[in-house]
Fold this sequence. Notes:
Arc Repressor Mutant, subunit A; D-Maltodextrin-Binding Protein, domain 2; 3 domains
Amino acid sequence: MISLKQMKYFVEIVDAGSYSRAAERLYVAQSALSRHIKELENELQAVLLERDARHFELTEAGRLFHQRSKRLLQELAETVQQTQHVSKGEQGTIRLLHSSSVTLTAAIGAALHRLLDDFPGVTLEVAKAASDHQVSDIEEGRADLGLVRLPVLRRHANIELREVFSERLVVAVPRRHRLAEQAAGDIAGLRGERFVSLPHPERGGLSYLVAGLCQAQGFFPTAARATSRKTSLLNLIEAGFGIAIVPDSMREVAPAGVRFLDLPPQQAGSIVGLLRRRDTAPIVAKFATAFEQALRQLPGASAPPGAHPTEEAR
């Protein structure tokens, strides 16, 4: 019967390129390695290595056995690791929601990729949901984590909302708009423009924030003839229905016919938060903590003013 030890020794010899280096790596005598390989060849009834006094060459059978053995040993190691994660409660699917205004940029995608490498027992299920809907979904167990654009209006005592980073807002306009050639603008100068996104009376998020910024400049956004609170608002802008104030990260997903104007930092800032249950499962809590740290370190991200966990999701 072929043993795992024989397979491991054979793979190590081939990878090391010599019996002596393999013996050093494995902390075994070279004579013991030679004996195990001879016993392996006897079991297989095949020559794996053609040897002389100083070198060896893989036979065709040896190449096949090396390739398959290495794959089996890797799969076994992964199985052992995953079994340990399951035993410690460190494996499962984490359901992550994000609002349409919190774009899963390339930087966030890369951060999630690194996190999944650090949590090999975890898989992610990602979906979009309005910020206030995320609170209910997480509270009622339909989701585990949520990325939201503040403010969040709904309140649940068991939901923790942590402010993770702030992002500047910009004006998105059609390429033929009168402002399209400008590099920067001012919210007050948008009075009378048609906005393709208006706030829902019972929801927070980006459109609620934008309405507040406009009101601070003395006007309420005028509705365009077609509106949306989703990323499809960018398509409405390209089609010439109106304008919108959006997070700078939306540049990554904007169609070619949309132009962007910077706004003064003191006028237009926005905060992204991470939602989770206070009594969430240990693996979700660990993942959430690591995700929060990764989000704070994103290129170009800045800490929100007075960042701290809020008392409850709002």
